[in-house]
Design brief:
128 residues; mainly alpha
């Protein structure tokens, strides 16, 4: 199977699951941000983000104007956030909290629609 389709399925399911978890339990997002204040959790989270991003980019670094660009963007965003959390932890956590407070509804909608779009592409549910 093509790496693009595998990653589209992975990120599609991941984004939808994350959307539903946060929608059904909004306190979870506050818990995540509180946990980011703990240095052990922050380092673990940063390393995981870097690892997921690197794997994503090594398998799929395609800058083509299609769903493949979304997958590549997710990988690069993961690397950037992971590195920022590792190198500049406090300013990055504060920025993420500020972004989450101001754009929480937009972020939730993006999680849902990007996840649906990637699953649609990978499973050919609706022809676009």
């Amino acid at each position: 199977m093509d790496n693009s389709l595998v990653l589209a399925k992975f990120w599609g399911w991941y984004l939808l699951i994350f959307f539903f978890v946060l929608s059904l339990n909004p306190k979870r997002i506050k818990q995540i941000f509180n946990d980011l204040k703990d240095e052990k959790f922050l380092i673990l989270f940063a390393f995981m983000a870097i690892i997921f991003g690197l794997i994503n980019i090594l398998l799929h670094n395609i800058w083509e104007l299609s769903y493949k660009l979304i997958i590549t963007g997710i990988g690069w965003l993961s690397i950037i956030i992971g590195l920022a959390l590792f190198i500049f932890p406090k300013p990055t956590v504060n920025s993420l909290i500020l972004i989450n407070i101001k754009l929480v509804q937009i972020i939730y909608l993006l999680l849902f629609f990007v996840g649906l779009y990637l699953l649609n592409i990978s499973y050919n549910i609706v022809l676009i």
